[in-house]
Design brief:
Layout (H helix, E strand, L loop, with lengths): L1 E2 L6 E6 L12 H16 L10 E4 L4 E5 L3 E7 L3 E7 L4 E7 L15 H14 L7 E7 L11 H15 L3 E7 L4 E7 L4 E7 L16
């Protein structure tokens, strides 16, 4: 992971679900709680005064922006997720795109990186953010030759960087490439992120967050 000198967020890396936190094996719900509690500690607020953090699962091909403190979760393999955080307003959003780009007006959906990342920026600006206050983090873009002969992950990474650089948005962190999947939890109010690296991605890994907590 590459981190800039002015890196203001905190990224937790969990390998194969096992953490260094007392050597225990954690479920996703427990990991989200770790991120929540650490956020309260860093902000100097106690649990009574801290706003409740909402859990939201982001499906592939979508984006989500909110002003409410939210733990956005998603799962990426060759796909890429871009997290944007407004350091002034302390709000954030995430996209999850599957393909790098399209310039066909009949196919301009957020499944494509150029559309999804441009729209993520546009929505945050429309909500009151300024691009100079936005920090970006990029996750995903894995390539497993056992699954596919085409390394689409690298193209997804490149388009995310291209759109962010074009809009003069600083990329403060990246956890990209490799050959395994990632499960990401982004706290939009604290800019803290948990990244779980796993060999196999299963829908059941996210229960109950995939359906019940949306």
């Amino acid at each position: 992971m590459r981190v800039s000198k002015n890196y203001i967020s905190k990224t937790f890396i969990f390998s194969l679900w096992r953490t260094a936190h007392h050597g225990k094996l954690f479920l996703v719900k427990e990991i989200i709680n770790i991120v929540h509690e650490n956020s309260k500690t860093q902000s100097g607020k106690n649990s009574k005064n801290s706003p409740a953090v909402i859990n939201y699962f982001l499906n592939p091909g979508y984006l989500f922006v909110t002003e409410k403190p939210t733990a956005i979760s998603t799962v990426v393999g060759s796909c890429v997720a871009v997290c944007l955080f407004d350091k002034k307003r302390r709000t954030g959003g995430m996209n999850h795109f599957q393909l790098p780009d399209t310039y066909d007006k009949t196919k301009t959906t957020t499944r494509y990186g150029n559309v999804a990342t441009s729209m993520l920026i546009k929505i945050m600006v429309e909500d009151g953010s300024k691009t100079k206050h936005l920090h970006a983090q990029i996750f995903g873009g894995a390539y497993n030759p056992k699954i596919s002969q085409t390394n689409i992950g690298i193209d997804n990474i490149k388009i995310a960087r291209k759109i962010l650089n074009k809009n003069h948005i600083k990329i403060v962190s990246e956890d990209i490439g490799g050959s395994i999947g990632r499960k990401i939890i982004f706290n939009t109010s604290s800019n803290e992120i948990a990244v779980l690296k796993v060999e196999n991605i299963r829908d059941a890994d996210w229960y109950p967050f995939e359906k019940n907590d949306r």
